């Protein structure tokens, strides 16, 4: 049971960091003069890239540790 809790907490932390990175990217895009739709697109791209990076790192670490 505790292993499941650790995994869920790790997933929650990754999602929170992805949201923070996306919000920062969107805010920086708006400060740079981008329209709302462009800023939202940049935020969404950052969110997806962050989650992709986390998944890739998890896969690589899992393969390396087994």
Structure report:
- By secondary structure, the protein is mainly alpha-helical.
- The chain has helices at residues 2-31, 36-65.
- It has two helices and no strands.
What is the strand and helix layout of this fold?
Elements (H helix, E strand, L loop, with lengths): L1 H30 L4 H30 L1
Helix pairs in contact: 1-2
Which key features would you list for this structure?
66 residues; mainly alpha; 0% strand
Average pLDDT rating = 95
Q: Beta-strand percentage?
A: under 5%
**CA gyration radius, whole angstroms:** 15 Å
SSE ordering: HH
- Mass-distribution shape: elongated
The helicity comes to over 70%
**Main sheet overview:** none
Question: Low-confidence segments, ≥5 residues, pLDDT <50?
Answer: none
Which structural class matches the secondary elements? mainly alpha
Number of helices: 2
| Ends distance | 22 Å
* Quaternary structure annotation: single chain
Query: How many strand units?
Result: 0
């Amino acid at each position: 049971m505790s292993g499941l809790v650790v995994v869920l907490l790790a997933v929650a932390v990754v999602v929170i960091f992805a949201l923070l990175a996306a919000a920062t990217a969107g805010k920086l895009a708006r400060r740079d003069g981008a329209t709302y739709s462009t800023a939202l697109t940049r935020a969404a791209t950052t969110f997806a890239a962050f989650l992709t990076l986390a998944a890739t790192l998890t896969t690589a670490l899992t393969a390396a540790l087994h």
